[in-house]
Amino acid sequence: MDAALLAELIAFCGIETEFNDAWGKPTRVSETQQLELLKAQGFDIEDDDTARLQLLARQLDFWQQPLQQVSVQRLGEPLQVSLQVALEQANTVIALQLTCEDGQHYTCNLTPVDGELTQVIVLDEVEYHQYLHELPWQLPAGYHQLAIAGSAQQQRLIITPGRCFQPEQFTRHKQWGIALQLYALRSERNWGIGDFTDLSHTLSYLASVGADFVGLNPIHALYPAMPESASPYSPSSRRWLNISYIDVEAMPGFANCSRTKALVEAPGFVSQLSEQRRKDYVDYSGVMQLKLPAMKSLYQWFSEQKSTTAKDINKAFKQFKLQGGDSLLQLALYDALHAHLYQQNSDYWGWPNWPEQYRDPASDAVMQFSKQHSAELDFYCYLQFIAQQQLAQAQQVAKNAGMLLGLYRDLAVGVSEASTEIWSNPQLYCRQASVGAPPDPLGPAGQNWGLPPMYPYQLYKQAYQPIIDLLHANMQHAGALRIDHVMALLRLWWVPKSAATAAGGAYVYYPIMDLLGILALESQRNQAVVIGEDLGTVPDGIRELLSDYGVYSYRVFFFETAADGGYISPQHYPQQAMATLTTHDLPTLIGFWHCDDLRLGKELGLYQDEAQLQQLYAERHANKQRILDSLHGHRIGGDSVLPHDYPRSSEHLGMDKTLNYALQRHLAATSSQLLCLQLEDALEMTQPVNVPGTSSEYPNWRRKLSQPLEQWSQREDIRQLFSDISRIRKD
């Protein structure tokens, strides 16, 4: 390809050709990789003339619109508008109409040439000018609409407060909480998977020992027809909830419906339920085989009821459907159609593999299915309604118990290719590429997550509505939101499907200032603290920018090392951060100390060669000694977190409860506003939740906690640990 054309295409698509890798080494994206990314975005890389025409069409799509699709501006700063016109229209008066979010209207007339000329471009022999004007209004934070009178041209005008929500109570003392995978909660009453009632009970217990929040894995909607597609980070829809977390026994009618009572009291059902409770790993198919028939029976009971209580529930359900709009209906339609097709043929794992007539949600075949199966669609809407109610009740339990934040939810970085989100909005996503990560310490070979990325320009064309919807939905019934891979606001590592490995990709940039502005606005509106998972390769200045917007950094103890290799004192962690010992992608404390993750990685073939593995063992050995040195060297209130006679050499030292709990108390002294610990570590568990870079090789997202809630919540050693942490956090 002509070098000048290639450079223009790369710039237009926001592809970064040079970057510093996770070890700080300058790295260049090869021309072959650049071309493959352009191909993934729809450009003909074999024919320069065709590629030029494709680029021209996309440029004209932007420049032939007098008003930009969306503009994000900061509260209190002068209000501005850019007008884009062909040269011959520069002296034409344009009548602007502003409609504020509260319904107020304003008008003014502008002549483009009277503004500041900011850009000139010639396309297809036509010269286009861009002029910047200052508008005479002051607007409150919110979503407003600017339009050109007498035309369809309009702009979404977003005014952002410029900083995310931070509770006033943060100024008084530091908060702490527990991170858990909801599915992993065992109890003597659940149906083989943790549910929203288990969550409520866990919140009540943790509030009693002084915790301020519980951090959840993503609870996004998955695939009821294919329960084994269970990764919370490869969802079907990030706007809706995973219905497997519904507590069936808490649904309306469970105590009254004789049909459901007969179903769940049948000997075969009771036997299967007992078996699911005994399993150490969640059997998603087995769980849904129990839950779905019971939930359908209770939906039928609800549909038949005429009582006052049922009428109140039905009124709330109708309001829920009205608010859910097309997004809710599309999810219900997808789930119903998926179940219908998958029962016929297991090859129909998702919409890309469905019969052609069903791949477009607006097709006649899909519309016909919707009409013929309206009751089933309503059933899936009802399950979302119940899930939202039970989640809201859990948050209310937390708030009533005195927790400051209650739940903090987790927003996954993307959706799977077979998702409802892509089926209903295919033009937004690039299906010829996947989101991932270049090689780094967590994934030495790079990572490919199998999640099609959003096109930045399509996101802009849709006035950022998909992002607004995602943030609003995930801040519901929560005091905080963790954004997985927050670097996605700036850039994502795109791996073309043609790439041999995840290393064969490149970074593609996104409009970070606009996205941060929207994040701040939704955070303030929903009063949700924002935590940005800023691990991996982070460009210079980005953490500072996120901090300016009030986003809390995510600091993992194992990664917080000084230049000499030693571990930074917790008292030196940034205040605007969440500190944690480990995460769902890392080994447990015991697993780390005993190198279980390295042995498992070797078994799974995650390392390039034996030399690399031996280097990791050597680094781990050194790190263990440095950790032990830190615990002996740093004091809390004048006291060491380890007994004075505890060994000072890590050689042949196993991880025991003394060392485990000392590590947790050690980090509790962090100066960071938020501290998050893993329940698995309090339970002294060894096996990890997830092994990055694997799929079927390891049972990711299935391992349950080692003890049921009824047991561990009665353990005095755990209660003492949590009480100690609460005391340290308040000192």
Polypeptide structure, described:
The radius of gyration is 27 Å and the shape is globular. The protein contains 22 helices and 27 strands. It has an eight-stranded parallel β-sheet. The longest helix is centred in the middle third of the chain and has 37 residues, at 308-344. It is an alpha/beta fold and 731 residues long. Helix 8 packs across helix 10 and helix 13 packs parallel to helix 14 (512-526). Strand 12 (175-180), helix 4 (196-208) and strand 13 (213-216) form a beta-alpha-beta unit.
Strand order of the largest sheet: 22-19-16-13-12-27-24-23
Strand content: 15-25%
- Give the oligomeric state: single chain
How many helix segments? 22
Which overall shape is indicated by the principal axes computed on the Cα atoms? globular
**Largest sheet features:** 8 strands, parallel
Structural class by secondary-structure content:
alpha/beta
* Mean pLDDT metric: 95
Distance between the termini: 64 Å
Compute the number of strand runs. Answer: 27
Helix content: 25-40%
- Low-confidence runs: none
User: Measured on Cα atoms, how large is the radius of gyration?
Assistant: 27 Å
Domain MalQ N-terminal beta-sandwich: 67-161
Catalytic activity: Transfers a segment of a (1->4)-alpha-D-glucan to a new position in an acceptor, which may be glucose or a (1->4)-alpha-D-glucan
Protein name: 4-alpha-glucanotransferase
Enzyme class: transferase
